[in-house]
Amino acid sequence: MIDQVHKYYDGSHVLKGIMLTVPRGQSILFRGDNGSGKSTLLRTICGLLRSTTGRVRWMDGLEKEDQRTIGYVPERFPQLNMSPYEYLMAMGRIQRMSDRDIQSRLDELMGLFRMEPYRNQRMNGFSKGMLQKVNLVQAMLRKPDLLVLDEPLSGLDVDAQRKLQQLLIEMHREGTALMMVCHESDLLDGVAERIITLEMGLVVGDELVKVSESGADRVEPVTRKILLRTESACTLIVCCRMSEELHLLLDAHEAVAMLESYEEEEDKKTDGLTPCLSVKVQSPSSDDVLRLILGAGGSVVSVQQISAGSTENEEGILCASH
Asked: Helices 158-173 and 128-140, interaxial angle, to 10°?
């Protein structure tokens, strides 16, 4: 879960309260113009950048960070003064792979991308396309739980692009979650089952798509999240006792514009905190969302009507019940 993530660079507000729930194993394509915050968001998810406020919370049941394997393909890969074989063997050992397993995986991936003739050549003379192949292989040496790719098609010829597409489809079928940024996204459209659009650090589009079995056909939109504008009337619902399944249902609901988690103090007789969820929804759909919450075993704490053009504090609470 990406929970209200903000990121500032030298006074610039790059990420503005990003709030996303990502089911385990989902494949996501991030779209947006240069400067929209895509690469910054990917690096924050990987743990390479620390958010200014907010956090990335993992809900995969793994207690220790080193139990989770994340592969990362950066947008640019350096021209190192070493061979692909030397570099990739070192990367595999850092990931505690045996030399035998590294060699087996290298044979598979280098053969796929036709890198065998170059495995012992120095990378400081490589083309951008060949460097990108090394970049891809290092991220997939140890099959990751999450594979993050920032412009993975950059520099690749058409044959290598199609082989990468098929490889990503196979990895996703085997359970690897994918998060991708790509300007030339036609090929990756066939891999993604969710497309998120960023604009100036904000999520302005969130669409689930239907991927064909081959993964190569154009995607078919099946539902699109409707984002509320500040001038739209909406309802703020606060609920508690939510299951993870209910959280995912609300996040996917087309009329829900914002989900925000927080903790509220319990009765003074207890020492714990009650996890709550604030749900901002289009007013015409508020009854449907309330039925969804109650039907899934959630408890509604309050319902607050927010008129067009007003702030949440200017409106009264319509009800408050547990």
From this structure: 10
pTM, whole model, 2 decimals? 0.66
The CATH classification number of 234-320 equals: 3.30.70
User: Which pair of tokens denotes residue 219?
Assistant: 């995607």
Instruction: Judge: domain 2-223, CATH 2.60.40.1500.
Output: no
The 10s digit of each residue's pLDDT in 111-159 is: 999 999 999 999 999 999 999 999 999 999 998 999 999 999 989 999 9
**pLDDT digits 0-9 by tens, 91-124:** 999 999 999 999 999 999 999 999 999 999 999 9
Amino acid at site 74: P
What Å distances lie between residue 255 and 284, 301, 310, CA to CA?
A: 9, 20, 19
**Do the beta carbons of residue 50 and residue 8 sit within 8 Å?**
no
Give residue limits of the domains in the chain: 2-223, 234-320
177 closest CA partner among 22, 25, 30 = 25
> Which strands make up the sheet holding 146-150, listed edge to edge?
70-73, 146-150, 177-181, 27-31, 194-199, 202-210, 220-224
DSSP code per residue over 136-169: HHHHHSS--SEEEEESTTTT--HHHHHHHHHHHH
| Number of neighbouring beta carbons within 10 Å of residue 283 | 16
